[in-house]
Structure formats: structure tokens, C-alpha cells
């Protein structure tokens, strides 16, 4: 028996490495009198959102990023929320603005997303930032797919010319992921709930990215031997355990690399949010002998 | 011998049909005191650009769209061009603005594209419009892929669940085409110069879209029997004849539908430019019992 066992792409370790580097960049910024500052707006009492927002504050604090904690009532009007966003748009001491989604029904998420100044849009969800990304001229990148790209960098996994298959076409993962892979010269296929014979596509993938939101949706037989498998899922199974979109045990026997759940993609998302905030704070600042102008 | 012969997707006929409908919509607008108005900016003396711009003026005139013909010197500064664009942005009588590309070297095409007010961006090239398209909330659509979508509507060719393969990843055809097909529930693969074993992808396509810019690049063996083949190419072969990216004679023996070159995609592009201009002029106007608010 010679069972192949996939190497783990360790998001805990990699995100720690990234956060340590960010800490140093923040120190340099502070020496120049600049403290990176992130405004985090939470509307209402959604429990999951509260946890996410808490984790973002904590991650920021550890790196030295200052956060502003804005908690608004569930019944706030759209107009009031937009006024808040504009206030932080105009405040030069704020480098990043984040409005935690989902929002209550009376508020248009699209309007709020579009109201955030693109140069402070740390989530990379503003249409103009999505547009720049799809035109291969990225300014701000959605955090989850950006975090996934970091695995390929760190583990030196080639992308150019590879057959990348993405399962799921959401605006925050599937679509921007496709753009990033395409911008890195992969051949990219986007599959989704309307795809026929899904397995025929996934079985041809050199790089398979599952972002579908169904526990253990991708099975061993769906994966090409030697593929790199990225599991974006965060689902609770019937025993209440956190599981991914990939049946990890079986798929690990055929894949060459796999992101575990938990400890894979998850920790990378927040790390990328922090990196984007630091990048925005660095903009226009002289660091060493270079003036940083990246968006 | 039972050679299948692909049916032609007739762009000349379809674009005429669309232009006739637009003529009626313009008449309605004029009865309400509104004349759709398109500003066309041409910089320099590029011969191909002159022809394109001339054709756009002529098409507009036939439909009843008024055009403003702005011809600027080859050595104009970026600043001067941006001032012109802003002038038309602020002019409420202008519904659409188009800057013919390519631009001279001293001018950033990106800056100029971004300077056009998104609500007057008839080409659909502004990053915010590309972003809206990729987020499945289109406001203004790039004309060539939009024209291609019209064939599927007219000939009632299903898209949902089909395997669509696009050859070429330009910002004006390949990428927005991918978004439109994905938004219509196709499974979409984007291939390009770095794709390995291209033929393996194209041979699986139910719908194959060639936008690569090489004469007769796609051959009979690259096409699945019964596929719908869209030929976006406009190349001169060694005899000076206008030919597409698809080897039309051979591919016609296996495809179910094909766009000819000339007379396929080409005429649709200008028709879509006209439609976008009319749409923009209709915005906010009461037509029949509906108030038009489409972007």
C-alpha cells in the first residue's frame, strides 16, 4: 500500500508569519508618526458577525493597528449608516473602512459598499476595485482569494499554464479568485450550481478551489491525483463539527497539497485584511529609499 | 456523405433589426423633447481609428442620434484631453461619451477611461462598470460581448448549464464575455496564450468564442460537433482578405451555428454602442406607463 498523503498548506503558520512581518511594517510607520487605523462598522446583533468583528479588532490590536469600534443599532436607517461611512471617508487619520456584512433588510448592501471610498476599501468589494482586479490592474483585493494566493507564493506552487477549476461563483470568493488566477496566467474554469457533470471538470483540475458552502461536497473521486486542493468551506456537520467543502480524509489520499479546515484558508482572510490596512497606511510614505504608492 | 453545415448567425440582419427598433425609440424620445447625443473623441491621425469613428457617426446619424465630432491633435497633452472629457461629463445634453482607442503614447488610456463619467460610459470600459458586470449587476456593457449575447437571444440558443470556452482574455472581449456568460448560468472557461493543450478545452465546448486575433486559429479538429461557434476575429490574411479567428469552411462542417466574418460579430458592436446611447438617453424618462431607470 502506497497511499499518497497530501502535504498540508498551513494557514495558521503562514498567517502568523505574515502578521509578524506586518508588525514590523507598523513599527516603521509609527516611527514616521503614522498609526494605521481601521474603522470597523457593525450593525445590529448578529452573533456570527459579532464574533468576526471581535476577531478583526483583536488581530489588528496584536499587530499595532488602531481600530475604531462602531456599533450601530439594528434599526438604523440607510441614510444614517451612509452618513457614518462618509464621515470616515473624510477623516484623513482613517486608512481603512469595513462594514461587516450582512446588513439589516432596510439597508442596501450595494449602496453601502459603493459609498466606501475605494482607496479605503480594505475588503476590496467596491465595484471599482473589483473592476480594476478584473482588468488586471488590482488596487485592493478581496481578502479570502488574496489569502489563497499567498499559499501559492509561500509553497512555491506554480500557477501559470495550470488548469484551475473553481467551484462557486460568489462575489467575495469565486469571481475574484478567477480573476487573480487568470491574472497569474492560469487557464480558469468557473463552475457552480448550474454546471452539468461537475465531476468531469473537477477531475481535470491541477488546482481545485472549493467555495461552495456544502460540507464534504468534493470527494476523492472528484479530484485528479496530484492536484492542489484549496478548501474555502466553513460548514458545521451534523455533529456540530467545523468541516470544509472537501471530504478531507479521502481527498488527502490523492491530492499533492491541501488546505485543512480549520487552520487553512480561514486564518489567512483576517491576515490579508490587516495587510491591506497597512498597505493603505503606507501609501505615499517614504520607506527606505522607496516611496510607497501601491493601492 | 452527410456533411453537417452550420447555420449562419447573421449579424448584418440582426444589427439591422436592432437599429430599426432603436430608430423607433429615438422617435419616442424626440417626441418628449430629448435627442440622444453622443460625444465621439478622436485623437490623432490613426487611419483605422478614423474609419471606426466615421462608421460610428454614420450609424448614429441613421438612427437619429446626434453626435459631436471632436478631433484632437496627435500631440495633445493628457491634461487637455481630460479637460475635454470633463466638459462633456458636465454637459447634461450629452448622454454618451466615447474616446476612440488607442491613444498616443503621452496619454494614459487608463486615466482617460476612468475620467469618463460611468453613467455616460457607452463603451462600458470604466472599471466601475466592469466591476458591476462581474458582480452580476451590469450598468453598461462592453459592446462586442454584448452584441454576441444578442445572437443567443435572437436564435434562442440556450446558455444555462452549457460549457462555454473563451479563447482570449482581453479587457474588451474575453473577460467581460466570461462575466456575461457566467451571469447567464454557463460554466465558463477562459483560455489564452499560456493555456496548455488548448484543443482539449475547445473540443469540450458547447459554445466556443474565439477572440484571439490570429487568422484561422481555430480549426475543424478543435471544435466539438454541434457546437455554437462565435468568431470575434478581424484579421487580414496573406491575400489581404478579411478573415476571422476561425477556419470558417472546415469548422462549418462540424458546428451547429457559426458567425461569419465579415457580417457576424462586427456589425453587432456598433449596434450595441447605439443601443447603449439610447438607453442612457431614456434614463429617467417616462415611456408608456414605465419610467425607465436602467443604467
UniProtKB/TrEMBL annotation, chains A, B:
Residues 9-123 form the Tetrahydrofolate dehydrogenase/cyclohydrolase catalytic domain. GO terms for molecular function: methenyltetrahydrofolate cyclohydrolase activity; methylenetetrahydrofolate dehydrogenase (NADP+) activity. Residues 142-283 form the Tetrahydrofolate dehydrogenase/cyclohydrolase NAD(P)-binding domain. Pfam families: THF_DHG_CYH, THF_DHG_CYH_C. Gene3D superfamilies: Leucine Dehydrogenase, chain A, domain 1, NAD(P)-binding Rossmann-like Domain. One of its GO terms (cellular component) is cytosol. Keywords: Amino-acid biosynthesis, Histidine biosynthesis, Hydrolase, Methionine biosynthesis, Multifunctional enzyme, NADP, One-carbon metabolism, Oxidoreductase, Purine biosynthesis. It catalyses: (6R)-5,10-methylene-5,6,7,8-tetrahydrofolate + NADP(+) = (6R)-5,10-methenyltetrahydrofolate + NADPH; (6R)-5,10-methenyltetrahydrofolate + H2O = (6R)-10-formyltetrahydrofolate + H(+). Catalyzes the oxidation of 5,10-methylenetetrahydrofolate to 5,10-methenyltetrahydrofolate and then the hydrolysis of 5,10-methenyltetrahydrofolate to 10-formyltetrahydrofolate. The keyword Plastid does not apply. This is Bifunctional protein FolD. GO terms for biological process: L-histidine biosynthetic process; methionine biosynthetic process; purine nucleotide biosynthetic process; tetrahydrofolate interconversion.
